[in-house]
Amino acid sequence: MKRIFLLLLSASAVSATVSCSGGGSSAGKPGTKGELIPKERSRSFVAQRPYGMVSIPSGSFVVGLADQDMTNQPEKAQLRTVTVSSFFMDEAETTNAEYRVFINYVRDSIARSLLAEAAGEGGDGSGRGESIGDYAYQAYQEDEEMTPYQEWQESQGGRDESGYDANKKLDWSIPLHWSTAKYPDVEYAEVLESMYLPASQRVGNQRVIDASKLRYSYVWEDHNTAIAENARGANFLKRESLAIYPDTTVWVRDFHYSYNEPLFEQYFWHNSYKDYPIVGVTWDQARAYCDFRSKLKTDYNESLKRKKQRPMKFRLPTEQEWEYAARGGLENAPFPWGGPYLMDDRACYLANFKPKRGSYIEDEKLGTYTYTAPVKKFRKNGYGLFDMSGNVSEWTVSDFNNSSYGFSNTLNPTTKGTADTRKSVRGGSWKDIGAMLMVGARDWERKDSARSYIGFRTVQDIPESAVKPKRRTN
């Protein structure tokens, strides 16, 4: 009996010791009273609208051609109701000027990397780009002590799992000199000139960047394979490196026995076309642009001293997201502006398309647009989106299938991940007849094809908690 009493007394002492100790208690931190309280603040999150985008509210709609199908194509799908979550969408098609930002970023990244490799450990430069030594990698300063993480990374070879090397960080504050008159030294000139076409391949002795060297590399995760195998990890990471310069020859290749050489030579790079939609890009190039736009915002957020959340990624819209946005909140309307006519009450056409046989001009008196038109020249729809019909057709992320409306889900439906090289293209273009401008009309193109009449616009998801609920009116 004594032995049992002593054991109970010892257990009570141990219990008292544990409950009175500050660090060993599992009952919660001081002030929580043992309750499960998250660290995050309870402030509501408000989604910031990206520049040039409009918010598309979530909703349900009848997908498909509710009006007469004058094309009688097999792409027509059965009518059914689907639901789409809210998202941001570019108010206009991606322009030449916007895509040139992407091109210039890749060009400058490659130039800086080549200069940094040639500069080695650098030298006693001024830091203003007056010698090639100024372009060396931003190595750690001698008087700057490494963090434990940096020391560990150095012991592992200097690169993390994504291939990033902290010791090979480019210094973007040093200006690049593209004019030959401003080359600081011979070594700099040798590196920069390696990016241009050799003299034997130039036309009219014009110094032109070798477009084949403008390659964008990025990593994305194959979600469909990872979900199918119920696993996550590096095995499902896909690394891509692709040429991102648009194919300007599409203006000649798409139309035989037609004089389109001026567009082939000028459309993408001439400043007069800066507000025209980008064309000649493949589906993969459009996706690479989306990744670049996501990276641009992520890098900015990480540069801020205060903690900033990682932004939602930019991407191509699904086929149903595109159709839902194109309708602009109208039900059973054949066109983004309603319909059923292609002209307004002043006999002005409401989109850029081919209005008559052999005639590609909407207003022959004004002599408007024979090919593409600058974005935002025609009336926007109820959501504030321009050119959802006409001007250029637009890539979507969805794989194309004649029967996809039948087997896809009714909640945020998509056919992404079916390994089909055919991708859904929506909206009709400047070369199409009015029937192809109907919001329910479907079309497709191979993902590796570039056309003079296909462009794209991007979307960004909005977290459901960031959407203000609609006020009910009883």
TrEMBL record:
Keyword Lipoprotein among UniProt keywords: yes
Keyword Signal: yes
Source species: Marnyiella aurantia
Domain of life of the source: Bacteria
InterPro entries referenced in this protein's UniProt entry, alphabetically: CTDL_fold, Glid_motil-assoc_lipo_GldK, Sulfatase_Mod_Factor_Kinase, SUMF_dom, SUMF_sf
UniProt KW keywords: Lipoprotein, Signal
Name of the gene this protein is made from: gldK
Protein name from the UniProt record: Gliding motility lipoprotein GldK
Residues spanning the signal sequence: 1-21
Molecular function per GO: formylglycine-generating oxidase activity
Domain Sulfatase-modifying factor enzyme-like: start-end pairs: 52-459
Pfam family, one: FGE-sulfatase
PANTHER family reported for this sequence: FORMYLGLYCINE-GENERATING ENZYME (PTHR23150:SF19), SULFATASE MODIFYING FACTOR 1, 2 (PTHR23150)
